[in-house]
Design goal:
The protein is α+β, with helices and mostly antiparallel strands and 204 residues long. The chain has one domain (6-191): C8orf32 fold, CATH 3.10.620. It contains six helices and nine strands, in the order αβαααβαβαββββββ. It has a seven-stranded antiparallel beta sheet. The longest helix is centred in the middle third of the chain and has 17 residues, at 69-85.
């Protein structure tokens, strides 16, 4: 594993102020709007076919995490540990397939693999599965990407392998597409986004 960056270590040593203390603008949406049921990504379906024990179970009540200073420090620690310790590689280079969701047990993986590991480590630390939601977004260039949404009493926060800083979902530059339902990880829901759309580049 690579060492955690100096900025992350500094934050951990200082205890890290909760994001609520940053006081987002009143117009900043704290929670991602959800819509109708959507189709689960094929990567998740195949992951569950291989690991049925991790995807089975009855629907449960939605739960949000109380984002105490201790919880925030743990969230930052696990996010940094995975981001620093896993080497990014595409599924095509790694497994010779276009798409495969799995745990990066060999120390390398793509965005979904980072997400799965963060989710597993947080659950092992006692975080409720209902608050840890795999989420599909689109980058500015239109490419698909996966992040982990953590639902808290202070908003929906995003753990992203492309950014060591944990951000409120509405502070990211992604367009949010769909994510797991809080009550059932095998049910996916579409996401709305009230923020202005990206400007379209001029053809001139």
């Amino acid at each position: 594993m690579r060492r955690v960056s100096q900025s992350v270590v500094l934050c951990l040593c200082l205890g890290i102020a909760l994001p609520a203390s940053i006081a987002p603008a009143a117009s900043t949406p704290l929670y991602t709007p959800t819509g109708e049921t959507s189709r689960a990504p094929i990567g998740w379906v195949e992951f569950c076919a291989e690991r049925r024990d991790e995807c089975s179970g009855q629907p449960t009540a939605a739960r949000d995490v109380v984002l105490s200073p201790k919880a925030w420090r743990e969230l930052v620690r696990i996010n940094a540990f995975v981001n620093e310790g896993i080497r990014p590689v595409t599924d095509l280079d790694h497994y010779n397939v276009v798409e495969r969701w799995t745990y990066p047990d060999d120390g390398q993986g793509d965005c979904e693999d980072y997400v799965l590991l963060k989710r597993r480590l947080l659950m092992e630390a006692g975080w409720p599965r209902e608050a840890l939601l795999i989420t599909i977004v689109r980058e500015k260039n239109g490419d698909g990407h996966a992040v982990l949404t953590v639902k808290t009493d202070k908003g929906d926060f995003v753990l992203d392998n492309q950014n060591e800083t944990i951000l409120l979902w509405s502070e990211t530059e992604y367009r949010f597409v769909k994510r797991q339902s809080q009550s059932d990880p095998n049910v996916w829901v579409s996401l709305g986004d009230p923020r202005p759309a990206y400007p379209v580049a001029s053809s001139r």
